[in-house]
Amino acid sequence: MGHPAKTDAPLSRVERRKARTNKRLLEVARHLFSKNGIYWTTVEDITESADQGKGTFYKYFESKDAIIRTLLEEGLGELQVKTEQAVKDTDSELTGLSAIIGARVDFFLSQPDYLLLFHQVRGMMQLQVGVAKELHDVYDEHLRRLAGLIEPAIEEAGGGSALDVATAIAAYTSGLLTYHVLFEGPDGIQRRRQYFLQTLQGSLLSLVKHTDGFR
Q1: Which of 6, 125, 160, 196 is the least buried, fewest Cβ under 10 Å from its Cβ?
Q2: What ranges do the domains of the chain cover?
Q3: What is the mean predicted confidence (pLDDT) over 26-44?
């Protein structure tokens, strides 16, 4: 007879408390980075808003750079999951490409804190400050996984570089939405989902039809 499948043991009270503290620090940091900026937000700002001591912060994160990287990993991971699910729910490669664009728009409209965080992280990577190399690695892995989802549509359209199209989709989507968030505020863009979808799909789907420019 086979042995019964093992299940994960429930978390202890201490482990649950640690998980809540970790989650709280991440949520507060994400909000402050979005509201006040990465460079102007200090560890003291995070701990004060989270009602935690600095010693507690350093039990979970080695530095402010470390919590920035963790937020990037978590945000891109959540975005990837939603994108993959959107593709699974479609029935063709080109429709899947539209679903990818739609999933990214919906993610950023629902979580503008991540949109502004990613915008600032790209600035850090461009300036090569702090943990720029580590952040590059995280972002590059996300683009590779996104390219894997895009590859079938590229092949159907006649070939080309899926990674280049993935990079364009990531840049165009976040760039357009960031501009409007900065000048209109998060609430102002919520009602304009259809406009963003039409604008982005019109621009980005044309890339797939002219993939020779990306070879």
Answers
A1: 6
A2: 12-61, 64-214
A3: 96
Fold of the domain built from segment(s) 12-61? Arc Repressor Mutant, subunit A (1.10.10)
In tens, the pLDDT along 198-207 reads: 999 888 877 6
CATH number of 64-214: 1.10.357.10
Q: Please tell me the distance from the alpha carbon of residue 154 to that of residue 211, in angstroms, as a whole number.
A: 8
Q: What letter represents residue 138's amino acid? A: V
Q: What is the pTM of this model?
A: 0.86
Which DSSP string do the residues of 76-129 spell out, in sequence order? HHHHHHHHHHHHHT-SSHHHHHHHHHHHHHHHHHH-HHHHHHHHHHHHHHHHT-
Q: How far is it, in rounded angstroms, from Cα 107 to Cα 124?
A: 22
Write out the two tokens for 72: 């990037």
